[in-house]
Every structure is written in structure tokens, then in C-alpha cells.
Specification:
Helix content: 25-40%
CATH architecture of the largest domain: 3-Layer(aba) Sandwich
Structural class: alpha/beta
Largest sheet: 7 strands, mixed
Number of helices: 13
CATH topology of the largest domain: Rossmann fold
CATH class of the largest domain: Alpha Beta
Shape: globular
Number of strands: 10
Radius of gyration: 21 Å
Number of domains: 3
CATH superfamily of the largest domain: Vaccinia Virus protein VP39
Distance between the termini: 50 Å
Length: 369
């Protein structure tokens, strides 16, 4: 895309989100800190590097933050400096208000283009670009711009549209363009006119597309800049970025990255890939540590709230694409013991049997002594 075309598309995207800040969540909607464990910088850094993040890397960038994402990151990381970056000032105002209403005071915001290196300069220990890169004219340039801000050992979370999973929505988008439908009012009128046997009507009513809300309809069907990725295109994008897959967070994800990419490719070939890609990427990580002799174990800080791991059953939302381990009494007691760092040598054999799955779920953090 030419430079002029890129600027034109960027301005179209900015106007889209000024008119339709996304996502649409009530300002009083809240999240439990325990359910933000997969957004915690210390846990992710420990998984990638086997140590705590240095003080000067305890900064988080939420790029293309929209109207909500800074809030859960602030809940997960109350001691970190969080920068919210977005093209849309309307989205930033709503995101800032949501944070203030919930007492999250560690977020600053800036309007601008993530491709501009002068805006929100790094280094950051954690960057989030959830649902952002596929709305850029050049996703690789955007990914490289974010990578340049990432600290060595830093983690970048992305969500990218899957070509296979978006096939139906993209078909609906093409149909709406051919029909000359350009605004949400037109989408709603068409949806109301179409019968239940219409494939387009069914697509416009799908709950997964947030079709009950104006912002959801606009984001799904009227966005001015959308790209989708096959598994091969995804792999090519990652190869050129210099980043490696640390974890996958989409449904059915396998723990080992190479196996997960093969699974995705096979699912795509078989016509069974029905989700987008959610990946945690790392820049030159130092490698994790599990049960090495000098490993220290610490409970994910998001679980160390006022109740300090209740003895009653602990129910958490799965965040990494696979079921959480059963948090029975033995697991909860181990998490309580590790609220203060514990050397693995102090664990009983039965406790050691629990460590691996709790660590894989990011509920335990392992660091080298």
C-alpha cells in the first residue's frame, strides 16, 4: 500500500472508532483480579525468563487499547506503569473513565499511531495488541514497531483474525458492500427484513459478533480495514518479526508451540479451524525454569488478594485455551504456601506432583534463586 493510501486507511480507521468506540461494556462492569492472572507481567516474565522483571522493564503498553483493555491490565498489575495508546480519542476517554471509576490510577493514555516510534517509546516488559494488527494496512510494519519497543525478554500478546474462522463474516461484509450498506442503521434494517432462511440474515444475527450492540455490528461488518491470516501467513509474519511463540491462548491450544502450529495447520486443512489466533510472543527470552534444584516458586500475584487463596473451592476463568487444573484442597494449600517464595526443596513429593500443571497454567511462577 502506498504511503498516501496508508494514511487514508488510517484516518478511516480512526474515524470508525471515534464514532463506534469498541468494545461496548458498561462502565460499571468489573473483573476479579484473580481472573486476570494471564495478564500479570511478573507471571509472564517468569515463564519466559525464569526471573523477575527488572524494575526498568516493569512498564506495560496496551497498543490499540480500545475502550476497555487498560482496565483489566491495571487490575492485574497495580504497581506497574501502564500506557494506553489508541488512534481514537473517544475510545481513550471511555477507557480512562472506566479505570477511574474502578480506582485504577496507574494508567496514562496517549492518542496516536503505534507505527510512530516517537509515541509511547519503550522499553516495555509487556505489550498487548489484541485485535489490532489485522486492522493495519501493513501488519508486519506494525508488529515490527511494537517489537522495537519490547524489552529483551519482553512479552507481546496478539490476537489476529483467522482466515478460516472469519470466512462467514467476510462473506457478509462483501455482501453488504455490494448492497451499498454503509452504516449500522442500514445493517439493522437489512437484518430485520431478511428472513430466517437467509444466510446473510443469520450471519448478521450471530451473537458472537456482538450484534446486539451498535459498536459490535460496526466492528464486525463495517470496519474499513480488515485483514485475515492463514496459518502459513501467520507463520511468515512471526518469522519476519524476530519473535518466538511463548504460549497460545486460543481454544484447544497445546502447550508446545511447534506442536500447536502443526495442530492449527491441520485444523485449517480439515476445515475445522473455528477460532482466531491468540498468541503470547517473546523477544529473546532467557528460558523458563521449572523444578530445578534452586528454583523458587511463588503464587501468581493476582491470586494473592485479601482472601489469600481461600480454603473453599477456588473457581477461575480459563485464559490460555485449555482447561485449568483442578484446584482442589491440596492445590489451594500449595498456592497458599507459595504466597511467599518457597524453594522446591522444601516441597513434599505430593506437592511437587502438583507444581507442573499449576506452573503451566501461570498460577505458579518459577524463578531461579
Amino acid at each position: 500500500m502506498s504511503g498516501q493510501g496508508s494514511v487514508f486507511q488510517q484516518e478511516a480507521v480512526r474515524r470508525h472508532y471515534e464514532t463506534h468506540p469498541y468494545p461496548h461494556y458498561p462502565l460499571l462492569a468489573s473483573v476479579r483480579r484473580a481472573d486476570t492472572y494471564a495478564l500479570n507481567l511478573e507471571a509472564l516474565w517468569g515463564y519466559a525468563n525464569g526471573c523477575r522483571p527488572p524494575l526498568h522493564y516493569q512498564r506495560i503498553l496496551v497498543a490499540g487499547c480500545g475502550s476497555f483493555s487498560p482496565y483489566p491490565f491495571a487490575v492485574a498489575n497495580p504497581a506497574s506503569e501502564i500506557m494506553a495508546l489508541d488512534l481514537s480519542r473517544s475510545s481513550l476517554r471511555r477507557a480512562r473513565l472506566h479505570c477511574l471509576l474502578h480506582g485504577c490510577l496507574n494508567v496514562t493514555s496517549q492518542a496516536g499511531d503505534l507505527n510512530d516510534p516517537a509515541i509511547a517509546p519503550g522499553p516495555f516488559g509487556l505489550i498487548d495488541a489484541y485485535g489490532v494488527l489485522h486492522h493495519l494496512g501493513d501488519p508486519l510494519a506494525g508488529l515490527q514497531a511494537l517489537t522495537a519497543r519490547l524489552a529483551p525478554g519482553g512479552i507481546l500478546r496478539v490476537m489476529l483474525y483467522s482466515h478460516a474462522a472469519r470466512r462467514g463474516i467476510e462473506a457478509a461484509r462483501r455482501a453488504l458492500r455490494r448492497l451499498g450498506v454503509r452504516d449500522v442503521k442500514g445493517v439493522r434494517c437489512l437484518r430485520d427484513r431478511l428472513g430466517g432462511d437467509s444466510r446473510l440474515g443469520q450471519r448478521l444475527r450471530e451473537p458472537g459478533a456482538d450484534t446486539a450492540f451498535t459498536a459490535g455490528l460496526a466492528d464486525a461488518f463495517l470496519h474499513p480495514q480488515v485483514q485475515t491470516f492463514t496459518v502459513q501467513a501467520l507463520q511468515c509474519l512471526l518469522d519476519k518479526s524476530g519473535l518466538e511463540i511463548l504460549l497460545a491462548g486460543h481454544p484447544g491450544a497445546l502447550l508446545e508451540p511447534a506442536r500447536e502450529l502443526k495442530r492449527l495447520a491441520q485444523a485449517e486443512t480439515d476445515g475445522e479451524l473455528a477460532h482466531n489466533f491468540i498468541l503470547y510472543l517473546v523477544r529473546k527470552g532467557q528460558g523458563s525454569c521449572r523444578l530445578e534444584s534452586q528454583t523458587l516458586l511463588r503464587t501468581n500475584p493476582c491470586l494473592a488478594g485479601p482472601l489469600r487463596i481461600p480454603l473453599l473451592p477456588l473457581r477461575l476463568q480459563p485464559r490460555l485455551g485449555r482447561p485449568l487444573p483442578e484446584l482442589g484442597l491440596a492445590a489451594r494449600m500449595l498456592l497458599r504456601r507459595c504466597l511467599n517464595s518457597k524453594p522446591t526443596v522444601q516441597l513434599s513429593p505430593a506437592e511437587r506432583d502438583l507444581v507442573e500443571e499449576l506452573w503451566e497454567a501461570l498460577l505458579l511462577v518459577s524463578i531461579r534463586d
